[in-house]
Amino acid sequence: MKAHTDYLWFETTNREEFIRITDEVAQFVYESGIQEGFVLVSAMHITAAVYVNDWESGLIKDIHRWLNNLAPRKDYEHHRTGEDNGEAHLKNLIMHHQVTVPITNGELDLGPWQQIFYAEFDGQRRKRVVLKALGI
Amino acid sequence: MKAHTDYLWFETTNREEFIRITDEVAQFVYESGIQEGFVLVSAMHITAAVYVNDWESGLIKDIHRWLNNLAPRKDYEHHRTGEDNGEAHLKNLIMHHQVTVPITNGELDLGPWQQIFYAEFDGQRRKRVVLKALGI
Amino acid sequence: MKAHTDYLWFETTNREEFIRITDEVAQFVYESGIQEGFVLVSAMHITAAVYVNDWESGLIKDIHRWLNNLAPRKDYEHHRTGEDNGEAHLKNLIMHHQVTVPITNGELDLGPWQQIFYAEFDGQRRKRVVLKALGI
User: Fold this and answer.
1) Less Cβ crowding at N or C end of chain C, within 10 Å?
2) For chain B, what is the domain count?
């Protein structure tokens, strides 16, 4: 059995930004040499998410708007600590911070339209995603 | 260590349909011969989900209504591509597209009321779920 | 390859309660002897969740309020069975019932602010979380 670990770093220009990372995850799996197993793609921060969905710019705008509606920027209890990112924590919870992708025949076993995204909700500073593969 | 992979196919009659798949996943785990490990159950489409909850028809109606309220059918940016399924993408994101079930003593290690469901949000065509088990 | 399994039991005083379990999961990983792998932390009930976010009391209040807004206590179809916890099922679905944490060098590979929580939405009775680690 093999295990392989790496980290992707991000520092976005904007407070919110969705970044496609399918190619980076595929490259990581190739380097692992694992033929059959799982790769976990997991945000290491509590104001970012990792999700799988469509690489279509209209839909990406829809997701931003929809999240702003479900978790608006406003005054939260959390802001009494000096933070101003309460809504970013809630967006992390809706979207979930991680996905597990199966590895089959040495490749990501994704459906035809499935792309992996890093979703930043409180950026403009260095943040990380952990990649961990386990298998044979 | 063993890895085992299979795919479940669905073609629902209705646009939205929730289908219990616990028995199919249990059968897959039995065939894998794995005694201790994980089974990933993951939708391969971006307008469907896999979730674990109660097998109770009233609750299933409640979930449909609640999702229609959180992600209503309306005009989305995504529809400029010719699609009409923006709300189905958002429902995929709320519900998450995958679950991992532990395998203990060769069986699904679920709580007494936990059932695995495939949740279709844009059906009436062939779609897939990947099953992947890893363990000893 | 090693697999290790255990269960955490909870019986909360209140109907809703969020309980930090990072230390219990870290202790479980230490006992497993696994150096590289995954630990799955998964609620075995359909009215509870497991999530990763901040250990900050204001934010925890914000999450409770936000969930009450997205999934209010009201009359649900599910209540025709005699239950009164429809909203707790919906909260389970928003928050997701499980997380997978990577194990690196024998330790939980979490970001600096990431803490693991058990989120009870219908407590005051004994409920369980399964811990399952797989790796080398």
Assistant:
1) C
2) 1
Tokens of B106: 């060769």
pLDDT in tens, C50-74: 999 999 999 999 999 999 999 999 9
Q: Which of B55, B62, B107, B114 best probes binding to C when mutated, by most C CB atoms within 10 angstroms?
A: B62
In a domain, A54, yes or no: yes
Could you give the angle at the alpha carbon of C83 between the alpha carbons of C93 and C44, nearest 5°? 45
Q: What is the pLDDT of residues B35-83, one digit of tens each?
A: 999 999 999 999 999 999 999 999 999 999 999 999 999 999 999 999 9
Q: Is residue C79 part of a domain?
A: no
Of the candidates C5, C40, C93, the beta carbon closest to that of B53 is on C93
Q: How many CB pairs under 8 A join A and C?
A: 86
Does B78 fall in a domain? Answer: no
Do residue C58 and residue A45 have CB atoms under 8 angstroms apart?
no
ipTM over 0.90? The verdict is: yes
Q: Which long-range contacts (CB under 8 A, 24 or more apart) does C70-76 make?
A: C70/A70, C70/B70, C70/C94, C71/B66, C76/B58, C76/B59, C76/B62
Q: Do A44 and C1 touch (CB under 8 A)?
A: no
Q: Is the pTM of this model over 0.90?
A: yes
The single residue listed with the structure tokens 């971006």 is B46
